[in-house]
Amino acid sequence: MPITLITGPSRSGKSEWAEHLARSHAGSVIYVATAQRRADDAEWQARIDQHQQRRPADWTCLEEPVDLAALLATAAAGECWLVDALGTWLANVLEQDEDTWQSTVATLLAVLRSSPAELILVAEETGWGVVPAYPLGRIFRDRLGSLTRRIGAIAQSVYLVTGGYALDLTQLGVRLPEPDGATE
């Protein structure tokens, strides 16, 4: 089944584009929220509420901040799974050491490749600015960039959403060879 990757900067409309694509799916839609609720952060809760209000009432919402691959492995044929978002998920598992992270990515990619469901994955773009001055920021930026590149290599469609426009990179661009995955 098709994998669609949607990437872009914050507040660009990438989640709305993903939701638009999912609405065209004839079967059931399962929305996977990777954000963790924080009662002490009203602004964060408002963001979560905004996403919830946009979703159709008949979509199933599952919250999974950590074990994304195991949840996606339960997807069935005829379903559309929308994961929002990979950067948030990565932040939740960022403290994994490099070997554990590489194993996590390999497992996720294997699940994506073998899924019988349509998959729509949203990812944040973070690497277009300065190199973070602190190690954890560089790890986050590098891991997210590498992850989105590896998913883009197996996706049938890749969109960049920016400035309120969705650009179909699979139509406009040339796919790079699939990376080996160790480091980029």
UniProtKB/TrEMBL annotation:
Catalytic machinery residues: H51 (gmp-histidine intermediate)
Chain sites annotated for binding GTP: G8, P9, S10, R11, S12, G13, K14, S15, A33, T34, A35, E63, D84
Signal peptide region: none
Gene3D superfamilies hit by this protein: P-loop containing nucleotide triphosphate hydrolases
Role played: Catalyzes ATP-dependent phosphorylation of adenosylcobinamide and addition of GMP to adenosylcobinamide phosphate.
Family note: Belongs to the CobU/CobP family.
Protein name, entry field: Adenosylcobinamide kinase
